Amino acid sequence: MEDLYQLANLVQQRNQLEHAMAQLIGEPFTPAKVAEFLARRVFGIHSDEGTPFDGYFTEGALAGKSVAIRYLPERGRLYSFKASLTEPQSDYYLLMVGADGRRKHALQVSTAFTIDAVYLVDARHDAPLWETRDKAFPEWLRSRQVYPVAHCPLIT
To answer: Could you give the CA distance from residue 96 to residue 73 in angstroms, rounded to a whole number?
Structure first.
């Protein structure tokens, strides 16, 4: 019975943390909403509620360009993202990508919330590059990386 009380206590703590994070970001807590909040703050993105994308860049070479922010919790899910590029509705996608997806130990069933890399994808120009059948990491995407090592000069 002690384990039930311990589990209930941990669930209560998690709920309190998620409530505090929701208060901070001004939206219900999800990892994707936290990633969007971070992207807006770090990359100068103004949100636009009335459009099918997440906002506009407000400064630099991309000022005025529309952007859709996507959080992919595991790097292995990058391949599945290509479906989003079939009918681009924004000028760019900012992909905020989590860990490589390998479990640290056998009991880990969920992926921890991390942002290990960020990529800036030109929705129209880069779409044909996703046509590769290889499910491995797309090598061309390395040149679009803006975090942790910036290879893309459009965002500095």
So the answer is: 8
How buried is 75 (Cβ within 10 angstroms: 0-12 exposed, 13-18 middle, 19+ buried)?
A: middle
Give average pLDDT by consecutive 10-residue segment, the chain, 156 residues. Answer: 94 96 94 93 88 89 93 70 64 86 59 86 79 65 85 71
140: left (phi over 0), alpha (psi -120 to 50) or beta: alpha
Residue written as token pair 């991390």: 114
pTM of the model: 0.83
Give CA torsion, residues 95, 71, 134, 153, to 10 deg. 10
